[in-house]
Amino acid sequence: MTRGMRHFNVVVLGAGGVGKSALTVRFVQDVFLETYDPTIEEAYRRILDVDGVKASLEVLDTAGAEQFTALKEFYIKSGQGFVLVFSLTQEASLREVNNLRQQIYRVKGGDITVPIVVVGTKLDLVAEREVSRSTIQSLVARWGIPFYETSAKRNWHISDVFQGLVKQMLTRHPDD
Ligand code: GDP
Ligand code: MG
């Protein structure tokens, strides 16, 4: 039996400058964005094969306008899966991930099974790293959320992020 294409809305959230656009564009177009307008918000589409299931992902790369709470709530309501992004080179950006995580659970009515992955970007900038692996690993273990360290520049572990998220979404929404 051939299974039909599954469609999922994915929302990429995180502080400004952490590499949300670079991550998204590396995933959908396989190029590295050296510079990108930080105010551009764009939805992209890519089909991903996960364990023999074809998933059509609409990936919304958000861009800061969601500081307006109503808009952020709208994104969270419409999203079925979330990529929470911080930069390994900027410890402060990790706090925003925790805020977003709590907002998602709040908007989703306390549903702790909502698919989320946490991503630490700029893994290639070794000398500038501020967040140790043990710090982030103990946090995500407490949160119960999968974590990926990536580099959009070097194309390290980018597709793992979306594969991992799709697996969660397929478990959460087995056949709708
Ligand atoms: P956004 O505001 O979260 O969308 O951040 P951007 O994707 O625009 O990235 C901000 C800056 O960080 C840009 O200059 C990117 O080229 C750079 N950047 C993003 N990801 C990486 C990465 O993996 N490695 C390196 N070295 N730079 C990155
Ligand atoms: Mg951006």
Automatic annotation (TrEMBL):
Recorded GO CC terms: plasma membrane
Domain of life: Eukaryota
InterPro entries documented for this protein: P-loop_NTPase (IPR027417), Small_GTP-bd (IPR005225), Small_GTPase (IPR001806), Small_GTPase_Ras-type (IPR020849)
UniProt keyword list: Cell membrane, GTP-binding, Hydrolase, Membrane, Nucleotide-binding
Gene Ontology molecular function: GTP binding; GTPase activity
Cellular localisation: Cell membrane
Chief location category: membrane
GO biological-process terms attached to the record: signal transduction
SMART domains found in the cross-reference section: RAB (SM00175), RAS (SM00173), RHO (SM00174)
Mode of membrane association: Lipid-anchor
Residues of the signal peptide: none
Protein name: Small GTPase superfamily
Organism of this sequence: Boletus edulis BED1
